[in-house]
Amino acid sequence: MKAIVCNEFSELENLALSDVESPQAKAGQVVLNIEAAGVNFPDGLLVQGLYQMKPPTPFIPGSEVAGTVATLGEGVTHLKEGQRVVCFCMLGGFAEQVAVDARMVMPLPQEIASTEAAGLLTAHATAHHALRQRGNLAAGETLLVTGAAGGTGLAAIQIGKAIGANVIAVCSSDEKLAIAQENGADILINSSEVDVKSTLKSVTEGKGVDVAYDCVGGELFNACLSNMAWNGRLLVVGFASGDIPKVSVNLTLVKGCSVVGVFWGTFTQKQPKDFMLNMHELLQWYQEGKVKVVIDEIFELSATVNAINKLMSRKVKGKVIITP
């Protein structure tokens, strides 16, 4: 089968489209025919050796896929061959097939296209876990989202509105803010034109925000921390700016706020039942129209490097999808 292979940690351009052996389903596994795979910021970091996880090389990147069940391993009874499914596979997604733990595979309703389903997992499930389990966001609270036009940023806006929060979106351009507004953002802040720290103080009338969903880091993280409400929760989701900030812990003391890490991949492994409950709610919200996947562009498998480069350059509005 065809697959994108990372032979060693290096520049993205060194990823190779290769012929590799087709996977076989071991006990408790299924092999999927991949119809679509989502591209995420960690994919670009992973192949360069810059991510928290460093798998042994060579490996096939790609963590979220949608498609159909090809073969069942011993002991798998909740799925059947030919069934449409969506799956978090951690690795192996940028290929024509992947073998995965059957516990990570969920049936996919017919009305959800594979390209959209493949973009629903990581971005939306990360935001859902962050706001439900880590941020305990409640109706009536104020949610701040940085990088709000990216895949996970838009997901956080949608989920925040589904919960009943008032949402502030921070983006680097008016074009991106328009997309954030289309997805439910109530207050828009252009970080390229105004001082975010002082603007947040103004729009919240000095009260600050209850939950901040920060996937950018750098100075935006500091602006969030300076504007947390009493008992606020600052969620550390990622560092798209490339700048990992240092925490001024005195601010957590005087504001009575928490800085909370969000690592969805580990959550799926350590709390699989909670992960499945989250996905049940997400799929229900999708069918009710409360959340949706905004697709920026779809690339063929051979153009995976271009897909990842577009995402890493922060030019994406929504999700990038690869179709084998």
TrEMBL record:
The record's listing under Pfam families reads: ADH_N (PF08240), ADH_zinc_N (PF00107)
Q: Which domain of life is it from?
A: Bacteria
Q: Where is the Enoyl reductase (ER) domain?
A: 10-322
Provide the transmembrane region boundaries: none
Q: Which SMART domains match?
A: PKS_ER
| Listed CDD domains | QOR1
- What protein does this entry describe? NADPH:quinone oxidoreductase family protein
Gene Ontology molecular function terms on file: oxidoreductase activity; zinc ion binding
